[in-house]
User: Fold this.
Amino acid sequence: MPGPGDSRVKAYRKQAREGTLPPVLMWWVSGLDCHLILDGHARLAAAIAESVEPPLLRLHRAVARDDLAVRIDDAVGFYESELTRFAGLRTVHGPTVPDGAATTGPGSPVSSTTCKPLGSRPGPGPCQKGRTGGGASPAR
Assistant:
């Protein structure tokens, strides 16, 4: 971001004082969990230098209602299947296995691990890393 001494920032500072500063264009990126500034770095720097709130224009992706409903159903189905899988593991291994409520869902270690039934695993551990636990919807 340009500093307060930049020529573009100096030009925008007058507009910021007058209240005529064009908006800063932002886009929300969920993967980064923040907004990215697409246009208006100098305008933002000018507003900060003048201690005024900059006008913001935020872009976001709209999801169709029926597509959103399908995605929600997929996520709920995956969550329920993981809870069922954990219940089966608790039946076999006892209460040392967590119930799964705290560890299932997107971004959890369980969502990137697939556990096989005890009699079918080839290696020493019951789980294989790097495979989806099933039921997750593909990116659209």
Remarks:
- The mean pLDDT is 77.
- The chain is about 35% helix and 15% strand.
- Residues 78 and 136 are 6 Å apart (CA to CA).
- The beta strands are 24-29, 34-39, 56-59, 113-115, 127-129.
